[in-house]
Amino acid sequence: MAKSLKVNFERLQADVETLARIGRHENYSLYRMAFSEGDQAAREWLQKRIQEAGLDLYVDGAANIHARFNWDGQRPSIMTGSHIDTVPGAGHLDGALGVLVGLECLRRFKELGLSLRHAVEAIAFTDEEGRFGGMLGSQAICGQLTPEAIYNARDLDGMSLSQVMTAQGLNPTDILRARRKPESVLAFLELHIEQGPVLEREGVSIGVVEGIVGLFKWEATLKGTANHAGTTPMDMRQDAFQGLAEFAGEIPRILEENGSARSVATIGRVEIFPGAANVVPGSVKFSLDVRDTEGVILRDLADAFRRALSAIARRRGLMFEFEVLSEIEPVKCDPGLMEAIFDAARNLGVEPLQMPSGAAHDTQIMATLTRAGMIFVPSQGGRSHSPAEWTPWEDIEIGANVALNTLYQLAH
């Protein structure tokens, strides 16, 4: 058995704790949405850490931050990383852990003076969490963006991506210059918290991701008639919220009949109009997020949800319309990378669990450019996108060492 490399865990811990304080509000939650004040401060801190480590720093046109080791601009690279932007009210490990582990791996390669055949890059992708749609940085690298998509990207407050980038001295059209040729990236590896309860339940420290779910996200509206809550008989109402309530009750049946054991569907946001206690709801706008690991099942589910909403609307005298906010195809992780992760973990005395990812990640996009793989570490209580988000330090150390040795296998 080859001797395994080890990260400087004390330094990694300090980085995790320092970054966790940037963008933190009084309620202990993080607010580092893409291009926000908190995100900007985190970016400046990360760039300083890369320079202090003596690594090459590069910021591409999409504002992705790269740390580079063994870089000569000619050889292809092994890339690792994740994101440091957050959802509003976030915890401190989602994305950030993968970026900091990547940085620590490059520092160890440099300190140990290892001779590597390939360059290694650690990257912090821009706007993974979706202020302007999600996966912006990885989509830019993979050449999936167009001038029209960049121009039309807006956040929930109506601010355009172009406005926000220009205000920070960035040129939004440079996003298109971030595109990489497939031959320039040999492999991509992302370490991430699981954001679910499986690893903790199984008592396993490492997950090897076999595939990442695809999803479709709709913004749907049911329109009825707003009317007096006291004078309108129940059988004469066109109550938009009652239509939504009936639809919500149909979700388990639709998943059972048209989905798989891995299918999930969520109504995560609801707005009722006009929104008064004494008025029958005239319209209701809501989100629908549906995920599965198989594209054909996702398409069946989309048809089934559309039919169910149309039938409910027809029966209740409502109008139904919807807009597709995003569609992401599921992807399979590269078998060779999965094997490399298994080998690295077993050499450290850890038996990993092969599992799917129920959350979307930049790896999903990077898999369209190069072979890609993911390492999961447990999420305590399955909590994420919350200040309760936590992974035990001993699992973080194991995960970081698995990432370090996997990257070494790939790069040397």
TrEMBL record:
Binds 2 Zn(2+) ions per subunit. It is an enzyme of class 3 (hydrolase). It holds the Pfam family M20_dimer. Zn(2+) 1 binds at residues 83, 94, 192. Its EC number is 3.5.1.87. Keywords: Hydrolase, Metal-binding, Zinc. Residues 214-314 form the Peptidase M20 dimerisation domain. This is Amidase, hydantoinase/carbamoylase family. Gene3D superfamilies: 3.30.70.360, Zn peptidases. It comes from the Bacteria. One of its GO terms (molecular function) is metal ion binding. Zn(2+) 2 binds at residues 94, 129, 385. It comes from Nitrosococcus halophilus (strain Nc4).
